[in-house]
Amino acid sequence: MHAAATPVQFLWLIPLLPALGVLFNVFIGPRTGRAAVNFVSPAVVGVAFTVACYAFSRVLGLPHGGALLQDIYPWITAGTVQVHVAFRIDALSGVMILIVTGVGFLIHVYSTGYMHGDTDYARFFAYLNLFTFAMLILVMADSLPLMFVGWEGVGVCSYLLIGFWYDKEANAIAGKKAFVVNRIGDAGFVLGLFLIFWNLGPGPHSLSFTEIAAHAKDIPLGTVTVITLLLFVGATGKSAQLPLYVWLPDAMAGPTPVSALIHAATMVTAGVYMIARLNFLYILSPTTMAVVATIGAVTALFAATIGLMQNDIKKVLAYSTISQLGYMFLGVGVGAFGSGIFHLMTHAFFKGLLFLGSGSVIHGMSGEQDMQKMGGLRSYMPITFWTFFAGTIAIAGFPPFAAFFSKDAILGAAFGSPYGSWWLWTLGLIAAGLTSFYMFRLLFLTFFGECRVDEHAKHHLHESPASMTMPLIVLAILSLTGGWIGLPEHWLWGDRFGEFLAPTVGGAPVSEHMTAGTEYLLMGASVLVAAVGLGVAYLFYLVQPGLPALLAWKAKAAYNLIFNKYYVDELYELLFVRPAVALSNFLWRAVDAEVIEGVVNGTASVVNANGSLWRRLQTGNVQHYAISMLLGAMMILGYYALR
Amino acid sequence: MTLVPIHLYLILGAILFTIGCIGVLVRRNVIVIFMSIELMLNAVNLVFVAFSRHLQSTEGQVTVFFVMTVAAAEAAVGLAIIIAAFRNRETVNADELNFLRW
Fold it and tell me: What torsion do the CA atoms of A613, A619, A625, A628 make, to the nearest 10 degrees?
């Protein structure tokens, strides 16, 4: 953000292509039939990916820290506000558009297979393309207001897609919950945005990131803390962190490709992206950094413990996503913005893969999501199994696969950065062990052991079509190898990814405070906990399947607490939902129905009564009118005569 | 020839106007009401002409011509309305022709 941006003219193509896909799917798609929709919807995203690759190659060609900029048109001109619709591609947003269009393309292809039995496929792809469009606006925006447009856009698409099968009430409620919880966060985002505008000083403001960066140092520290915390409230909503994470597990009601694209790979990472984008602001406030890191670490551990006991295959992955997002916030919270984005990228690969794999399982199981009714699927769905296995070892943090490098970069920073501390690292480490445990539990329950599938579903059990397995294979390869672009320092080619991002996202120096020995020790510790997680899962679910039940019986209170997700939903229900519903009921029945309707209807009935009274004069008999005319004339005459 | 004093004309006009006025108010037959209106108009005409003569001015007589013209037009339109109403309602009774009301 230091070098002047290079103006280019092609960036608008990237969001335009998915937007055209939306128009196609809304107006033409429903009439053309499945084949055209299946071709156009992934194709527009694929072409957008190609353009994104070209843009990315241009960024690589620029001097370190360079950016491409396209100013499209002045959007808001009012007083001192002069916001432009402008797109910026630098190292950070370049990586993001590759993830959004690349992983997005794979998930679009996958969806053509997954949704083949659905009658409403054009609507589904319209939403999916619209989401891609909004997400691209979010990451490409050059100013905070335009970013907010994308931020809200993806929220709407998330709502629409969670409730895609709206004829089931539970899905509609889940969508509503996601929307309402996100509103709470977005209120924080908007307030932060206003506060930034308020503190920029005189003069026309474009509210572009460059401008905010230039003025960041003039804002008083206390105000910066408030601004960054408010924006972080927005991030906890969008990225499902404590205390606003509650919508994400319910969001699994949507179709599985949606869970993969929106609720794992892209949208939920928007909060991390926003903080990395505004790193120059966050780094100014140690308070905020500590809050972000703490929330991240606590969420990582908290969600991981819930994930241990879920039986719904998608719920496990949902809590895993919350936990992994916690890691990303831990990373950006200790100043390792690059590592946070690195984990964001590898997470997009392996969590996208795991969700798509679970979708493939659900597809093969005719809609069954309960892992207790699966088991032994390995031989029925070999491609799904092997790719899922790849995703599992990648997320568990075994070397040399993706999460090993990205998670270790974050844990190393949590330990060694000036913002970090040993207890943040400990929380992260425990969460890493739990991650390994619940992922292998999922793997063993689903693919190993005896087959617990009922006869009817077993009859239909089949490997998914190529349109679904091909994206799985590509994502599996990325999950296994994706970490190699960000190796630890002094290993082979070193941390290329971090070096590439560094001029854009800045951040605190990490390794200066750590010796190489410490670094290897930390690495060893995280591999060890991953291995322990694997070992325990192996013992519990393959060797001694009776053990988990025994343990649950022994520690009944703890088991119930975690199995019921710490009763957070119930607590929120009691603290917020019930009072809100009661207040709404009061406003409805007492204020609206009585007072407001009383005033409105009262006015009407006064007029009505008056009318009923006076209409009696209108007899329709001409002679009555004549008499009143005569009387009137006589009164006027009498007045003049007697005065 | 002796001149008839003006007040006799005025008294006659007042009597005619009152008869017409009462006719409009109390009769039920629309055609009679209509004729009563003509009577009121002609009472006024009489007063106009009397004053015209008394004041040695032709303006009153000119006004009378206008009134007669308008009365002719009014008679044509009024009778047409009465016939139309009769065709619809089979009555020329003012009490029963009260459908323009609430």
Answer: -40
Computed from CA positions of residues A427, A430, A432, A435, in that sequence, does the dihedral angle turn out positive or negative? negative
Q: What whole-number distance in Å separates Cα of residue A411 and Cα of residue A417?
A: 10
Q: With contacts defined as CB-CB under 8 Å, which chain B residues touch A623?
A: 24-26, 33, 94
Residues 6+ apart with CB under 8 A from A503: A2, A64, A65, A91
Can you name the residues that pair with A86 across neighbouring β-strands? A71
- Cross-chain residue pair B24–A623, CB shorter than 8 Å: yes
**In degrees rounded to 5, what are phi and psi of residue A7?**
-75, 135
Residues 585-624 of chain A with CB under 8 A from chain B are: 615-616, 618-623
Distance CA A461, CA A118 (A): 19
Cα of A636 to nearest chain B Cα, Å: 17
Phi, psi of A312 (to 5 degrees): -80, 125
ipTM field: 0.85
Asked whether the bond before A545 is cis by omega within 30 degrees of 0, the reply is no
Interface mutation target, options B25, B32, B96, chain A, most CBs of A under 10 Å: B25
pLDDT in tens, A187-234: 999 999 999 988 887 778 888 898 888 888 888 999 999 999 999 999
Give strand pairing partners of A208. Answer: A143
Among residues A298, A311, A314, A169, which one has the least CA distance to residue A245? Answer: A298
**Are B21 and A630 a contacting pair at CB < 8 A?**
yes
**What's the burial of A161, exposed, middle or buried (CB within 10 Å: 0-12/13-18/19+)?**
buried
Of B24, B33, B101, the CB nearest to A618: B101
Taking alpha carbons only, the member of A63, A49, A50 closest to residue A6 is A63
Compute the count of residue pairs across chains A and B with CB atoms less than 8 Å apart: 29
Residue A5 exposure: Cα atoms within 13 Å on the Cβ side: 21
pTM of the full structure:
0.80
The shortest C-alpha distance from A614 to chain B (Å) reads 10
Using one digit for the tens of pLDDT, what is the confidence trace for B8-54? 999 999 999 999 999 999 998 999 999 999 999 999 999 999 999 99
